[in-house]
Amino acid sequence: MADTKKNKKESPAKKVVKVEGVPQSFSPKKEEEKKQARIGVLICHCGTNIAGSIDIKALEEYTKTLPNVAFVDNYQYVCSTPGQKKITDAIAQHNLTGTVVAACSPRLHEPTFRTATKEGGLNPFRFEMANIREQNSWVHMHDGEGATEKAKDAVRIAVAKASLLEDLIPKSVLVEKAAMVVGAGVAGMQAALDLANAGIKTYLIETLPTIGGRMSQLDKTFPTLDCSQCILTPKMVDVGRAPNIELMTYTEVDAVEGYIGNFDVTLRKKASGVLSMAQAEAMGISGGGCNGCGDCEPVCPVIKPNDFEMGMKPRKAIYISHPQVVPLLYTIDFDSCVKCGLCVTVCGDKKAIDLEMKDEFVKVKVGTVVLALGFELFPIEKKEEWGYKRFENVITSLEFERLICASGPTGGHLVRPSDGKTPKKVAFILCAGSRDNTGIGKPYCSRFCCMYSLKHAHQIIEKIPGVQPYIFYMDIRSFGKMYEEFYYRIQDEGTKFIRGRVSHILEDPATKNLMVHSDDTLLDQPFRLEADLVVLATAVQPSVDTDRTRKLFGVSCSMDGWLLEAHPKLNPCGTTTAGVFLAGVCQGPKDIPDTVASAEGAASAASIPIHMGEVELEPYFAQCIEEKCAGCGMCVNLCPYKALALIEKEGRTVMEVTEAKCKGCGTCGGFCPGGAIWMQHFATPQIIGQIDAFLLGGAQ
Amino acid sequence: MVRSKGYPEALENKLIDRVLYDSDRSPEFTKVVEEISRTIPHMCYQCGTCTASCPSAPRSTYRIRKFVRRVVMGLENEALTDPDLWLCTTCYSCTDRCPRDIAPTDVIMAMRNLAFKRDIIPVNFLKTVQAIYTTGHGVPNNDVNRAARKKLGLEADPPTTHKFPQYIKGIQKILDYYKLKANADRIVKEREG
Q1: Same domain, yes or no, for B138 and B111?
Q2: ipTM for this prediction
């Protein structure tokens, strides 16, 4: 890369004069205007994707008539090695000043053709792409003639712009050698461990007092049936011990500034009311701080439902969610604490409790960020026909997990909430709120409910003699490794599968039994089941704080609220914000194996810029033409990225761009009353050139 | 569609070809039903929520899910000639609950309209037409009802065409415009003489 940069500098017509106070980016342009632009155009067939509807021959003949076009050719696949070589060779042979490829979307192959242009000895930003596939041949498949005419327009416009393009030098910024992972469920923990093991200082942020996330609420995991806590706690302990991980629980992201390589993140450490041993040490309380002894909990007079147990078990105002919490630190829920001070007394010399603790703000600087924001259950009571929260014996799958778990509120005995009796007929209702297009519910498949419901059926058969599980399903989606085999096993164990969605449930007020109404679609007969307990395999949705957090990091989301990846297939961990990556369910529903794989992918992607040490930013920066700038400063407030500032220069007030912060959105350039802002690569003359080419049909 | 092979009748009946051939399907039927019903039966994933919700299904052979499937597959004759088509009570429970946001009730209504164009309709529906034509009511008031209404402190006749018979003319005009009464009379006469 360094070599080509040198070549560029030696080639003629480059930065000859450097005008004082004017950005160098447009000074060479003035020189080059004298030189006739010579553009090479390559038209891609893309197999039949383009050539199937667009007349390539006619397009080529037309292109030859365009001003500035010095070379035209076509090829089956321009993105292939021989196709790219055509670009490289043509630059030298025809002494080109710019290249155009008429092919697919620049999102797909702009980098490819820029590299080819660079290899041919031109600045890579002298390349322009005409999209004649996504925006043309694919949508006008049945109108070849119209498509060809539209392709002529696209090529003419691209040639006009290519004729006015200028050399741009990408800017490099240094990358802070630290990363941040937001969310410490299994995805966040895995990503943090991977980053830390790769030698990167990692801040792991969790809004709850303990790490572990949803997975720590589960009893067993499909299809291997290993105990969820047993496989998760070692990871939690590793996270707590890893020297490269700075674990910050009960902490939220408050504000984010900066860009890839240099994110300045403000964190709010929520007041937990309890000092860790390290904090106590730092305050000079020798041997003090919370050691997790738990003496405070029995004396606390306030009783609240424990969210970790889905509200089915009480906790105190000073509490830990469950015995395996990491870090082992008590937390005071100040919303319910009455500040009676009993805990302070019993804590004694350890002096771990501070009832006057306030939220604290901490600033950290990181190079890259992984978001692992997780999920929550869709409020299934909104589907009134199934009676959740109206009928005591209708529960969600997460409540089932806590009830069947040995460390749960019932010690692992599945009981009916209405009378504490052991259920003998249990109905599992799949797609509860998923695959639902009514507007109340989620249109997507929640992806792991089929498998955990099979697991639930197995668990009750294992624990309750004589129990009969029923699974109401539309399709069983058992697509993972050993998943179909697991389905076979559960069917073999005696679970009854009813292919029909449950229309509604009625409760017998006397027995609190539930009449489940469905259609056995395979028999074509309405089916009724009097069940003791109904478990709704409830749809999942992004966790409550997802939207706020994603906005802080400038990450988009899809219609259903899941965070939007840079490319669903080829870049599932990346986002459109450079340096921010996605792990786990916040990108879309995933089971544990997929979540861990996604977390490892995100960690790997997030480590690359840090290991590279610096990143190149696309040079689409705004530039101030200082001789025109009146220093009015109106652009400064308009900039959504805080990239602009007024400075004093040679006795005048002018605007200055912090290039690394500028995203090239053009807000300032479009507004500037004096026309003093030059948008690199999208400069006014270039855009006017494109409009002229379109409206005037090629005659400039 | 049943295909015979020319065996003796008893054997022929036993050996009827019961395969659904793709060529028996009428894709046009799906389109017409969707146009009339203004809903999207082709999006049905056959979950059975409709049949399970249906108050007719437990006590009859009426299967709303099956009718929607017939529309999807373009089985025009099977759908329109099945007498179960007329067992929907139009309670709209299926429409309320359908997770694909289809209105199965409206699909049934569309098919009833198509069936009527072929004179396929139970006589009791036609008698309802005749009742509306003469009284303005599908179920006209009767002495039992009148007594019940009085007991509840209501007027014997509701403030409809029963109380204002002068407006029956307007209703008749509408029914005549669509030739509903004429067709009803004609079919009833054909069936009952």
Answers
A1: no
A2: 0.87
